[in-house]
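Re-running the complex after MR caught last week's input typo. The corrected sequence lines follow. Everything else is unchanged.
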Amino acid sequence: MLRPTTKDLAKEAGVSRATVDRVLNGRDGVKEKTVTRVNEAIAKLGFVRNIQAANLAKSQKYRFVFALPRSGDQFKDEIIRHIEEAGATFAEDLVWCDVHQIDENDPHSIAAFLTSLDPKTTSGVAIMAPETPQVRDAIYRLEQRGVAALPFISDQTTMKDHWVGMNNHSAGATAANLIGRFSNCAGGSIMIIAESMQSRDSLERRLGFDAEINENFPNLRALPSLETYGNPDRAQDIIESAFRNNSDLVGLYVLSSEARPPLSVVQELIGTTDLIKIAHERTPFTESALKSGNLDGIIAQNPGHLVRSAVRKLKANVDGRQAKGSQERIRVEVILRTNL
Amino acid sequence: MLRPTTKDLAKEAGVSRATVDRVLNGRDGVKEKTVTRVNEAIAKLGFVRNIQAANLAKSQKYRFVFALPRSGDQFKDEIIRHIEEAGATFAEDLVWCDVHQIDENDPHSIAAFLTSLDPKTTSGVAIMAPETPQVRDAIYRLEQRGVAALPFISDQTTMKDHWVGMNNHSAGATAANLIGRFSNCAGGSIMIIAESMQSRDSLERRLGFDAEINENFPNLRALPSLETYGNPDRAQDIIESAFRNNSDLVGLYVLSSEARPPLSVVQELIGTTDLIKIAHERTPFTESALKSGNLDGIIAQNPGHLVRSAVRKLKANVDGRQAKGSQERIRVEVILRTNL
DNA sequence: TTGTAAGCGTTATCAA
DNA sequence: TTGATAACGCTTACAA
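Corrected-run output:
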């Protein structure tokens, strides 16, 4: 039942523990033949290294920075809250988490920030920012310098599936599915409100939404996306005019992560209504809207899970491991009044 | 940035590290005054013990047993699969997981098994079994002997909120909510199929279901629960007769964790239909039923999360810690065709 | 290219 | 009631 140690490996391979360590960590300056012998011993004994002991010896500590947009509302607050909570949870693994605010619309300043990170003090960064050439390059250079980088919530195409966040296509499709099924017998049009359609996330949600509507709900029609650009006056104007011009509305989909600003406008404009309303992310606002019947469903990604998954992935990266499979998939959660 | 160590504590309190260790671990044979001094030093320096180093020194290993019912179908298989996966994930924390099958309907044999567990080889047990006096007592004695015990999926009232599983009242209510909203304009009755209504879990789901229907869907009527007792012939009979006697059916709720047996019977009896069907737990069967339109929604608890949460809670218990809050809440998940 | 020996932060076994 | 001292499994100077 006792796992073999480096001592056992050393004996088996007829070398010292220092040499075993060199092989285990891929350091060079070891004869090819010795490497082979050690590797054979590893295979033969079924050696699994004790990471905790290794960390103890190295006095390894991890400091991770979460780079989040300075703008934002309650969803951002939730994320920050969970970063703090994760800091407490992972403290025993010698992990520290910090939040750094970035200007999401200023790629140069983001790149400058990433460039300024010192591998000596920072083990990794989780980055929530839209994809731009500057940021993409900065991430690349960061990893060259030995700082782990991980796209967070906002996708970066270059990183393939190395990122943390939910499948936005599926999220949009699920919003459409809910509106379609909840409206059942009725036909009509659906208003879609976004902060901006510039980001990949928004596009994917919209694509998923349209695909689902077109495929399964022929009597529903998704209107063009209204973009608020985070401007309350503009939001007021375009939403009001959309209500005027569409008398057959049956549903409303708030596609952006921060649901409060647009939904407040809507609530003020039309008050209670039997319009079916779906929004993203669980926050104090969406939660209470759900309870009061002002919202029919929330499509959410679990903020705690997002943060912990990011920490585990960054840590695995630093340790030179692969993060474990199914745990890291971020679910597209459906939250209704009954499963708050 | 460096955390204080026992060495710092010893210096601060003017004692040796051995004494610090005694105080930290609540061992006795230390003068009251010394204890106070060490505790003051802990508070003053903000000492946080390094569990990894402690485990290394103790050569601490954790062996957890999952006691699962021998009967069961695909949901049980999913659980077992995730126990194996968790075994791999937690291997680096020196955690081993084993599965042991129990006869869920034979409380004496369950109690005997629990009694047979040796604290030397077993750190804790996660128990999935209905509550009975015998099991309750065995759990109590188990904990006296220093083996951590944790009700798993099946609730045990005596353990208060020390268990792992979803809120079954909320789960039932969510099933009702979905059927209610999906059926929208239609009124009628809802068939409810359970394996048995003996267990607390079933009762709570049923209570939640009824509460939601009564409160929010006055035009719907939940029929008495059909109990299959896990017997295919009986299932066939009672389901067939229920279909005969209720011409106004609009929905069907399979309340038990294993949905395949009853749903297979239903599929054979009525084929495709526009009856709204909701079942529990994500398995290959329910997944494919959702895809093919034979099922409208799944109410699920994430099996991987269940297992990992159990491991973390047992481990925290062994370490004499409290498990961390929000991470351990098992969500009532709603799974639709679009967010599989 | 390899080995020796000290050290990481805790616990355990003695002896005092 | 306390304190030395040696582990635990691994890394890391420094020496050979």
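None of the earlier attempt is carried over here. Residues 15-19, 22, 29-31, 34, 53, 55-59 of chain B lie near DNA strand D (CB under 10 Å from a C1'). The beta strands of chain B are 62-69, 95-102, 124-127, 148-151, 188-194, 220-227, 249-254, 276-280, 297-300, 333-335.
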